[in-house]
Amino acid sequence: MPTSDTDPRLLSLLHSPGLWRGSEHPASESGITDPVLSTGFPGLDACLPWQGWPTAALVEIITPQWGIGELQLVLPLLRRLSQQGRMSLWFAPPCSPYAPALLASGVDPACLYVVSAPPAQALWGIEKALQDASCALVLAWPGRLKNRQIRRLQLAASTGRTLGILFHHDPVRQSAAVLRLRVDATAQGLRIEVLKARGSYRQDIVAVTRGQP
Amino acid sequence: MTGRLYQLPLTGKPQRSLTLAKRRAAQAAAPETGLAARQTPLWYAVAIPQLLGIPDEQSRKDRLALLADRLGTLSASVSVEAPDCLVFEARSSLRYFGGIGKLRALLQQLLEPVLSEWGLPVSVHHAASPTPAASLLLARAGCNLLIHRKENLRSALGRLSVQSLCMPASRRRQLHDSGLRSLRDVWRLPGHALGQRFGTQFLRQLDQCLGHIASPVRTYQSPPRFNSSLEFEYAVESTQRLLPAVEELLERLCSFLRARDLSTLHLHLSLQHEAQAPTLLTLDMRHAGRAEAPLLLLLETRLSTMALPAPVSGMQLEAWRFKAASGSSHSLAGFVTEGTGRSAPRDAIAPLLTLLQARLGDAAVRSLQCHEEHCPEHAAGQAVCGQEQGDPGPGQAETLQARRPCWLLPEPVLLRQDNNRLFYRGSLRLRSGPERIETRWWTGQDVCRDYYVADNARGMRLWIFHEREGERRWFLHGIFD
Description:
The structure holds two protein chains of two kinds. Chain A is α/β, with parallel strands linked by helices. In chain A, α7 (about 145-160) links the parallel β5 and β6. The longest helix of chain A is centred in the C-terminal third of the chain and has 14 residues, at about 145-160. Chain A has a domain at about 55-190: 3-Layer(aba) Sandwich (Rossmann fold). In chain A, about 30% of the residues lie in helices and about 25% in strands. The radius of gyration of chain A is 18 Å and the shape is globular. By secondary structure, chain B is an alpha+beta fold. Chain B has five domains: about 1-40; about 45-210, Alpha-Beta Plaits; about 225-325, DNA polymerase, Y-family, little finger domain (Dna Ligase, domain 1, 2-Layer Sandwich), CATH 3.30.1490; about 365-400, no CATH class; about 405-480, no CATH class. Chain B contains 15 helices and 19 strands. Chain B has helices at about 1-35, 55-70, 90-95, 100-115, 130-140, 155-160, 170-175, 185, 190-200, 200-210, 240-260, 290-305, 345-350, 350-360, 395-400; strands at about 45, 80, 85-90, 125-130, 145, 225-235, 260-275, 280-290, 310-320, 320-325, 365-370, 380-385, 405-415, 415-420, 420-425, 430-440, 445-455, 460-465, 475-480. A five-stranded mixed beta sheet of chain B has the order 2-3-1-4-5, with helices on both faces. In chain B, strands 6, 7, 8, 9 and 10 form a five-stranded antiparallel beta sheet that branches. Chain B is elongated and about 110 Å long. The N and C termini of chain B lie far apart (about 90 Å). The chains are: A alpha/beta, B alpha+beta. β3 of chain A pairs antiparallel with β13 of chain B.
């Protein structure tokens, strides 16, 4: 912003501690910064303020229905975590993950556990897993969520310094999640729309092409 | 300097004999000074050869341990001599029990009910002598003898067969071929030559029997067991109210564990009711622990999901399977850092998994497994967390070549077919294929399919197959991602 250097009134306003600027996001309240993990898609990384997945945060991935390729978005992340031997928990997936396919994509199936539970119990479990530092990633298919519940999960993710990714179909209007992505299928692959990214006002649309079968 | 060095060996010797002489004098003077000379110990051995008839080794061990527990009333040092003997020191308690005859009668009284309960003959062999090795040898040979003095051991053991000693078969044959039948024959030979011919181990055994060298005895210690209970002044109806009592019991358990440097994997909590049988609650943990907070959290989680059948009047906490506590180190910064070793996070997640299992049930948390199989539905499996059979299995080479879907349906879904077109949430378009999978003919349920990758109108990438035999139907089997 070139004007901020020149206009003294604007400058004093910008130095006021009461003013929160949308473009700056606190690196971390506790002073600990975890290494940022790339999404594996340069185009998507570029339009996220963290240049990758946020850390200690809740991410919502909203799709019109499951199985349109949304898992592709997290496969690079899973691969990276599995290489580091870090654990992920999958809560109430719509179907059973197929271990040979994960292995073929470079994800060690031994690095993940699947938790099946009825929706209310699953939410309890997701919160516990997010609060636990030993779990690096939580993938969850919780069904319909209320704003209050999302806020609670976001809080749990920031206390446990865990990344939580929720997959669902019907978004609430306002959500406390740090990052919200809407994913749609196109003929070429996926169309990813950044609905919200905390610390950024950009609402980009990124296209990701699907690998040939 | 040289003078002193020269004198050293000269001055050394008289000094040593002086101390010996002093010691002897002190021993001689002991009765006058009120100190009794050290008594020769009396080791009492019981041989129970009927135990050898039990085929299972573990059960034999357990039974012997149980008998050793019983003998704890007779002596402070009881030793279990596998596979069929018990030895205990009897001299120290001889006067208390009123002589060796009374002791023997008492012993018989202790053993008989247990043995008859197991359906075994009640007669056992007894022997007592100043060395445990000799007592064992005599008891195993079935000589019911009592030898008080060490000097008499030689002649008493003389009549035993050489074969009763513990040694490998080749040594047995060697002894037999040398014409040595009884120990008396062995006593006649010089010790040095014996050692050269039959090995030091053989010589050592003989020396232990005669008391020339000490034979170490491992005193049996009964396994630890935790059992603590609380009675309430009035019956408690809500599980929340039970928690302070649970906390109190866990505090006792944890101080018990810390004192013994143990950790536990299983807890048994029984809630007692006034009019009906107690409610039992068993907690199996993946991660051995002895910290109070996680145990309390687990029991709290378990209690919160259960309904009490009746008001609780008391509770009892038991634990009897323990592991040696193993220390663990935590990361200094309190969070998992990048590049941490492989095994560390996997162990670290165990408490979380235990917590999830406590609330959602054991079967709710599963791990994925790969199998060496060509047939898609048999190539993967799930195992209940904590009950995995071996390693989850490294991947097979063949799946790395062919593309597989990330989601596999539990059962293939029949596809709607209309006018030579396939439908699943819209019409399907084949993208690639076929990949032929023909396997499992040996099971009688042949798998004979052509797999294709297809896209539907909504952007789902599907894995479908066409039966090659029978009705030649089309099925949906998986969804790519």
